[in-house]
Amino acid sequence: xxxxIRRILVxxxxxxxxxxxxxxxxxxxxxxxxxxxPVVAAAPSSAPDASDxxxxxxxxxxxxxxxxxxxxxxxxERLLKRADHIVHDEATVTDKDGNLVHLQADHGTxxxxxxxxxxxxxxxxxxxxxxxxxxxxxxxxxxxxxxxDLKVGxxxxxxxxxxxxxxxxxxxxxxxxxxx
Length: 180
Known about the structure:
Radius of gyration: 16 Å
Low-confidence stretches: 28-55
Number of helices: 4
Shape: globular
CATH superfamily: Copper binding periplasmic protein CusF
Number of domains: 1
CATH architecture: Beta Barrel
Structural class: alpha+beta
Largest sheet: 8 strands, mixed
Strand content: 25-35%
Mean pLDDT: 74
Number of strands: 8
């Protein structure tokens, strides 16, 4: 019976990872609409320099949507709680023009930050460094933030777009201090 429960939990974990990848794929493909608007805020965008032109929602629009739809906010919060088990994930998807887009997700604590990069210490001793720029979006729990709000030791979840060997952080989510 124990192995059956273990298998179910593994399958549930795989489904959760595939869900995160599907969210990233939908975002990279430029799919929008009210149903996917909250997801776009936490996933890489296919047009990072023109987020308004790509149909991606702004942080204020997302906050208003979550405020008006508490059930959606609770579901998103549960999804983020499950995401704390993801350490590192990579996906290759096609964008709305059919071009390949390489996405990366990392979860861990900030080991160092500054000079246009964040080094993340992940579970198992792995360290990943991602670049940042002026377009990197930061969320502090449910609130909008800035890169300067982040500090060494913060637990973060980073969505990046990979070009060659360089991962550029598009979205950084800092977990609240009381999150486990």
